[in-house]
Amino acid sequence: MDIIERFIEHPNLEKKEYTALLKASEEPLAAARLAEEAVRLRKKYYGDAVYVRGLIEFTNYCKNNCLYCGIRRGNPEAQRYRLTEEEILSCCESGHRLGYQTFVLQGGEDPWYTDERMERIIRAVKERYPGCAVTLSIGERSYESYRRLREAGADRYLLRHETASDAHYRKLHPPEMSLSYRKQCLYNLKELGYQAGAGFMVGTPGQTYDELAEDLLFLRELKPQMAGIGPFVPHHSTPFKNEPAGSVELTLRLLSIVRILLPGILLPATTALGTLDPLGREKGFAAGANVLMPNLSPMGRRKQYDLYDNKLCTGDEAAESLAELKKRVSAAGWRLSMERGDAAEEPEDKR
Question: What is the domain count for the chain?
Answer without folding.
Answer: 1
